[in-house]
Amino acid sequence: MEKFESINRLFIFLGGFTASALFGDFDYLIKCILGLMAFDYLTGFAASAINGNLSSTKGFKGLLKKFVIIMVICSGHIADLMLQTEGNYVRDAFIYAYGALELISIAENAGRAGLPVPSFMKRVIALFQEKENPEKEKSA
User: Fold this and answer.
1) C-alpha span between 69 and 94 (Å, rounded)
2) Which tens digits make up the pLDDT trace of 44-71?
3) Are 36 and 99 contacting, i.e. CB atoms less than 8 angstroms apart?
């Protein structure tokens, strides 16, 4: 039993060391973005279940997108290390940007699930859902 506890402690140590090296401080911003990513995934799952269009392929793609967001945040921390900043400015900027997108996605998922979404949020969601239109770019 002691051997199992020692191995368990080793894995916890290695996991914490790796997370610290990749993310920097495990502060409130990291906790917030991880929470928002989990809520976005779960609300997307719930909305798809309610609408009867669950798809393991879409779910896996969603998880891969979350993984890419984590890698972008980690690269922001590495950029902070390279720039020798006093804080985590680049990492934090990525977290704020992706946090805002996660919040918008959560509201969008709530709407897909049939919950009322405030009109200002509908306008924000519509802005992010617009596809690029080449004709608009030519006239601008």
Assistant:
1) 9
2) 999 999 999 989 899 999 999 999 999 9
3) yes
Contact 88, 25 (CB under 8 A): yes
Which of 101, 122, 111, 97 lies closest to 43 in space, CA to CA?
111
Cβ–Cβ < 8 Å for 88, 81:
no
Q: Taking Cα atoms as reference points, which of 76, 95, 117, 116 lies closest to residue 36?
A: 95
Task: List the one residue out of 101, 131, 103 whose CA is nearest residue 118.
Answer: 103
Write the Ramachandran bin of 52: left for phi over 0, alpha for psi from -120 to 50, otherwise beta: left
Q: Extract the tokens encoding 120.
A: 């200002």
Q: Does the pLDDT at position 133 exceed 60?
A: no
